[in-house]
Amino acid sequence: MGQNSPILKKPSPNLPRSSPKSPAEIFESNASAEELFAHSQSDLLRRSGQRF
Length: 52
Hints:
Elements: H1 6-9, H2 23-51
């Protein structure tokens, strides 16, 4: 789930695609993407829960 999310595919605006990332930067971007995805999932669940 979430592999084809446009959020995860978008390259970060301040880093060119070819620029090598440090492990810390990779971890940071992964963490924020995971956080964003988890937040959107819980938001979806909360809204669908209110509907029933």
